[in-house]
Design a protein that fits this description.
With 292 residues, this protein is of the alpha+beta class. 19% of the residues lie in helices and 30% in strands. It has five helices and 18 strands. The strands form three sheets. Strands 1, 3, 4, 6, 11, 12, 13, 14 and 18 form a nine-stranded antiparallel beta sheet that branches. Strands 2-5-15-7-8-9-10 form a seven-stranded antiparallel beta sheet, with no helix packed on it. The radius of gyration is 22 Å and the shape is globular.
Length: 292
Amino acid sequence: MSLLRALIWANGDEPSVPGLIACYPLSSDGHATAGASSEAVLKNVEFRSGACYLNGAYEHGYRFGYRAQFPVGSLSYQSLGFCVDLFPLDFNPTPTGRIRPALWETLRSLIGANRTASYASHENVITAGPSYRWFSVKHRAGHLDLWLNNGNTQLAIPEAVMAPEMWHRLVISLDLAEHKILTSLDGRQLPTVRLPEPFTLNVIGSPDEATDKVLTFTDYSNGWVFHGYAAGLRVFDHALTLEEHDFLARDRAWEKRRVVGNARYSVLLVLVTLLVVAGPIGWRVIQGGRRP
């Protein structure tokens, strides 16, 4: 990026980062508002508070497991960037419990019990390529990990901590020619991750090269999934620069998103629940009191 362009961005005159090839707002449906030629493939997801709720269940083997796939046909394996807002509910490593619908999460948030047991490992954050899992972000041992080629290459980012029950903005750029990955979390630039040399993605030249240009919140190799809310998924046709990372975080929009399970909605839900449960009992008491 030229110095002139960087100065223009600093003055706020640039409307957006160029090269946007897909934008999935995920505020009320899976419709792409820019770039992508097809809509998201969704199953067993819910839309609440302007975001997409992913219930933490793996779709293969569980009746209510979710599917959330986002095709980006013009994506380049050699150079790409993406940005997404995430509200993780937990990163439980082992399956131990039940699926929770979004309304249940709202009720639990009122009593401070938003962490739920899982139907699958929740250590996946986002994965590129349902077939080859050629790039993936995990959250393990308290920090982010980058996995490439179905986990055959694993690169840790100890400084990247994504706290549960908070909105975050994750920005990633992959540049194979320069053998590097840039990552920023909540506007904070993280150390550059260097790829081994030589390095290539196994999906390149494979039978699925043309069809594996899909982002998803499920790792279809080990069954790990993301559990929480997602919104504002954007994909770019090039590896984002440091200046572009900064620009994508400048609006601080993830901090302005509604907290999932806001208090007003939660109180209303509790009152309705009490009326449903206590109403018939109270009516029987009143009727009993009228008897001679």
